[in-house]
Amino acid sequence: MTKSEFRYAHHPKDVKHYTTQELREHFLIPTLFEEDTIKLVYTMYDRYIVGGAFPLNKPLVLETIDELKADYFLERRELGIVNVGGKGKVTVDGTVYELNKKEALYVGKGSKEVIFETADGEQPYFYINSAPAHHAYPTKKVGKEDAEVIELGDQKTANRRTLNKLIVNSIVPTCQLQMGLTELHEGNVWNTMPSHTHTRRMEAYFYFDLAAGQTVSHFMGQPDETRHIFMQGHQAVISPEWSIHSGCGTSNYSFIWGMAGENLDYGDMDAVATDELK
């Protein structure tokens, strides 16, 4: 079964007037994993799709949705998948790829059949991002050993973290989709601080590995007028091009960042000094 919903884009002047509930309705994706279901959210920010596949009892086939007006899901799109649960399998046009936790798979434009399923009796959670594509690049698995790893932050400022670039152009060619996984070290709670914006690209964050009873406050908005959304594990948030995207948790956690837009330059950021935030 595939379920989908649609989200509009927003002017930053309008967002300044949103209540807490309105912010959550427009930007938070509270439930991504539903038993034996693929859930998809189509947003008008760069026509990005955020979703989750949870094949608990049976394989799940990625079906096209009405918003695409396409014969099959990847007719004009590319796809990024990161497994955040137990071992699972993704079959792309007959080729099987096994994904352990925190391993990724890039699926190129033109792939007609994508199937998600469990492996060895384990319980996978497949986190999905997708963007429009103009060229067909080969499907490629990105294992832990393939990731481009960067150590960032400092224990003194509670933001020591390990950044794993997974689906980036230094590892796998893509049209515009990029994805990676950041792990905060124990005792560290801040991500993407100092913060930044990049009007050339939108972004989506997915938080996981957050202990029960803990929360992450995700910060968004223009740097001079920020807002926050409290989030739990296995929830995602849409970040507009004009918005910062940062967070602080009550404990350490991991998160997946995915983006699409005008370029593939990971370092293309408009930095915001921490003491300039309002």
UniProtKB/TrEMBL annotation:
Q: What Enzyme Commission number(s) apply to this enzyme? A: 5.3.1.17
Show the GO MF annotations.
4-deoxy-L-threo-5-hexosulose-uronate ketol-isomerase activity; zinc ion binding
Which reactions appear under catalytic activity for this entry?
Answer: 5-dehydro-4-deoxy-D-glucuronate = 3-deoxy-D-glycero-2,5-hexodiulosonate
Give the protein's cofactors: Zn(2+)
Q: Its Gene Ontology biological processes?
A: D-galacturonate catabolic process; D-glucuronate catabolic process; pectin catabolic process
One Pfam family assigned to this protein is KduI
Which residues does Zn(2+) bind? 196, 198, 203, 245
Say yes or no: keyword Transferase present.
Answer: no
- Name the InterPro entries on file: KduI, KduI/IolB_isomerase, KduI_N, RmlC-like_jellyroll, RmlC_Cupin_sf
Q: In which pathway does it act?
A: Glycan metabolism; pectin degradation; 2-dehydro-3-deoxy-D-gluconate from pectin: step 4/5
Which top class of enzyme applies to this chain?
isomerase
Keyword annotations for this protein? Isomerase, Metal-binding, Zinc
Q: What binding details are noted for the cofactor? A: Binds 1 zinc ion per subunit.
> Which NCBIfam families does the UniProt record give?
PRK00924.1 (NF002091)
Family, as annotated? Belongs to the KduI family.
- Function per UniProt: Catalyzes the isomerization of 5-dehydro-4-deoxy-D-glucuronate to 3-deoxy-D-glycero-2,5-hexodiulosonate.
Designated name of the protein? 4-deoxy-L-threo-5-hexosulose-uronate ketol-isomerase
Q: Which gene encodes it?
A: kduI
